[in-house]
Amino acid sequence: MVKHIGIICCSAEGAALCYKTICIEAQEKLFKYRHPEITMHTPPLADYMQHIWNGNWEGVADLMLNSANIVANAGAELGICPDNTIHQAYDLMISKSPIPFLHIAEVVGEEAKKQKFKHLGILGTKYLMNSPVYPDALKKFRMTSEIPIVADQDKIDKIIFEELVNGIFLEESRKIINKIILKLAKNGCDAVVLGCTEIPLIVDPNDCPLPTLDSTRLLARAAINNALE
User: Fold this and answer.
1) Which strands make up the sheet holding 5-8, listed edge to edge?
2) DSSP codes joined into one string, 152-202
3) For residues 47, 48, 51 and 56, what is the CA-based torsion angle, rounded to 10 degrees?
4) Which residue in 59, 127, 177, 188 is a FRET match for 45, CA 20 to 30 A apart?
5) Domains 5-103+217-228 and 104-214 share a fold
């Protein structure tokens, strides 16, 4: 038996990448064209953003829980959320969820531990970078982290919300992100977390100044492994 995966989505590009990764990479563990059954649900991104702008994480949790109930009612037995920012509401949602969920930052921490990284740079929305999502998760693995300076946070946040979530991927923006990652490398980071699920679509690991931890694809792979247990 293979578990039915429920994906509760926030923004389109990151959720689509996670979905595609499961569908394609599960074939390596099963057989051609075979992947776990998947149900996805998302309200409009605007609904999430209204709560995020107001710092209303209870409202975010309610949206997440509504999606969790919808995918569970469709048969999902395991949940994932390919959005780092709204994991700030994870603890408010999970106790009421009808199905278990993987935590994206803990999945990233597991991979960082395997690769023996110690000090991670965290990229994402300004809400994510200034949140406890990654610092709290990484404590379990005895790792530390740091975020870019405020000016660089603003640059990344603008790229995410004005470009990436709308499917716009500019070479100039890729260079800007690489320069920010280089600063983190000079500060002693030994890897960088691509902690916005759209960032892997613009950062090329082959020319990135640091090894990358792709939160989107790592979550998808963890979901595959869990679904096949």
Assistant:
1) 38-41, 5-8, 78-80
2) HHHHHHHHHHHTGGGT---HHHHHHHHHHHHHHHHTT-SEEEE-STTGGGT
3) 140
4) 177
5) yes
Question: By the 8 A CB rule, do 178 and 209 touch?
Answer: yes
CATH topology for the 5-103+217-228 domain: Rossmann fold (3.40.50)
The token pair that represents 170 in the structure block:
């500019």
Q: Which amino acid is at 131?
A: S
| CATH no. for 104-214 | 3.40.50.1860
Whole-model pTM above 0.90? Answer: yes
For 78-121, what is each residue's pLDDT tens digit?
999 999 999 999 999 999 999 999 999 999 999 999 999 999 99
- Give the bridge partners for 39, in sequence order: 6
**CA angle, residues 19, 69, 167, in degrees to nearest 5:** 30
Q: Where are the domains of the chain?
A: 5-103+217-228, 104-214
Q: Tell me if 185 sits within 8 A of 209, measured CB to CB.
A: yes
